[in-house]
Amino acid sequence: MLSQLLLAILLSCSILSASAASSMTIKLGVVTKPGSAQNIVAEKFKESVEQKSDGAISVKIYHSKSIGTETEILQQIQMNTIQMGIITAGVFDTFDPIVRVINYPFLFKDHAQADAILDGPLGRRILSSLESFGFKGLCFSENGFRNLTNNIRPVHGPRDIKGLKIRVMASALHREIWRALGANPTPMPWPIYTELEQGVIDGQENPLWVMEVYKLYEVQKYLTLTRHVYSPHIDVASLQWWQSLEQSTRDLLHDSMYDAALYQRRDNRGKNDDRLTLLRHKGFSIVENPDYDGLRQAVSNLKEVDLYRRPRVNKLLNEMLQATR
User: Which phi and psi (to 5°) does residue 87 adopt?
Assistant: First the structure.
């Protein structure tokens, strides 16, 4: 009887130990606040992972710049002090220059083309390249087509952009784009509501959801649907951490993140018409059809700049340009 009792106790302890060993908390960083595109992915991912793992894996979301800028979040992912992040693609070009290919101006014609390329072999090459810099690239979610706002004048073409002080993210490519368009690009971390309100900068460029969620209609007058760059988010993990996981756990996390990305893309695109109506109602003066030929011409020589001279970057850019013709 005593031996049976001891066996039961040992079995119970073994089960508890195994349960404790398999439990995990993932720290996931985003720079934006709840309701933003990154957060929608993060929250859907959290819901899916915790459900599929029966609570053995939990996800702690650090949002609203609570652990730093996007660059700082990526540095923490490299060091495995946090495990995952949902980060604007443009920010990666300070780590891996191949990501600049995605943000080449006027590359993608529409959402369907962006999905086909980024979910296909060319997109997977970019995700794989990130491993050399300590990141496990999982998939692409969506920021969206970027558009210009400012407080100085309506923008119909490149001539109207000349001299505008435009906030850009920490990206060498985005600085080059706006220099080519005649603006004064000013790198600045997010958020920038106060800087716009105080006139420190004249304007900014972002997808429509940003103007809605961050209420930029309160501090900006003019919106132009330039659609100059399709901006994805890259959903990444610490490579060091990822390699320590069992394959079944990797599969669960990857599938959950990809499903969350697909959900968020659909959600984002389905709201854009209503967003445009809201922004107009809130007071934005909107130029819906600017001089796209003039804008494209102004940035047409960017493929020749030093940012694209590295052989592997240049090769992928030419393949992307061929695939999106």
Answer: -130, 140
Cα–Cα distance between 66 and 68 in angstroms, integer?
6
Q: Fill in the amino acid letter for 89.
A: A
Pairing of strands 222-224, 285-287: parallel
Question: By the 8 A CB rule, do 186 and 171 touch?
Answer: no
The answer to the question of residue 84 being in a domain is yes
Q: Which two tokens stand for residue 196?
A: 């716009």
- The whole-model pTM stands at 0.90
Is the Cα torsion angle 59, 189, 80, 241 positive or negative in sign?
positive
Other beta carbons within 10 angstroms of residue 154's beta carbon come to 14
d(CA 201, CA 192): 9
Q: What is the pLDDT of residue 22?
A: 60
Which amino acid, residue 54?
Answer: D
Share of the chain above pLDDT 90, in %: 91
Whichever domain contains 59, its CATH number is 3.40.190.170
Q: Which two tokens stand for residue 92?
A: 């990666």
**Does some domain include residue 305?**
yes
* Residue 5 belongs to a domain: no
Band of residue 12 on the pLDDT scale cut at 50, 70, 90: very low
Domain that residue 239 falls in: 25-323
Q: What is the phi-psi region of residue 227: left when phi exceeds 0, alpha when psi lies from -120 to 50, beta otherwise?
A: left
Element (H, E) at 20: helix 2-22
Residue 66: CB atoms within 10 Å: 11
**CA angle, corner 239, sides to 44 and 15, nearest 5?**
70
What is the pLDDT at residue 160?
98
* Tally of domains within the chain: 1
What does the DSSP 8-state code read for residue 110? S
Is residue 316 within 8 A of residue 125, CB to CB? The reply is: yes
Reduced DSSP (H G I as helix, E B as strand, rest coil) percent helix, strand, coil of the chain, to 5 = 50, 20, 30
Cβ 40 vs Cβ 267: under 8 Å: yes
- Give the whole-angstrom CA distance, residue 178 versus residue 176: 6
Q: Is residue 145 part of a domain?
A: yes
